[in-house]
Design a protein that fits this description.
Blueprint (H helix, E strand, L loop, with lengths): L2 H33 L2 H37 L6 H10 L1
Length: about 90
């Protein structure tokens, strides 16, 4: 596999993990809260915090790293409008 395809694969996996973990965590927390049992909510929250830290933190670090490496690998500038535009419009 080429460097580009490897980076692209890792970038897509990172995005999938962010979306999947976010949806999964939201679902489990909602179900725990709807049950109304404080002990269950506390137990689910402990598990959710660990899962969120492990999986989401890894994906949050991987996304910008693989994004920048993909940009450099293809030969684009990080300051092109479609890349930097959303960042510049936030300030």
């Amino acid at each position: 596999m080429t460097v580009y395809l490897t980076l692209k694969y890792l970038h897509v996996i990172g995005a999938t993990v962010l979306l999947g973990i976010g949806a999964g965590i939201a679902f489990f927390m909602l179900m725990a809260h709807l049950g109304g049992e404080p002990a269950v909510v506390a137990g689910v929250t402990r598990i959710v915090v660990v899962a969120d830290f492990v999986f989401t933190a890894a994906a949050v670090i991987a996304q910008p790293v693989t994004g920048v490496l993909l940009t450099w690998n293809v030969g684009y500038s990080l300051w092109q409008g479609w890349i930097s535009g959303p960042l510049c419009s936030m300030s």
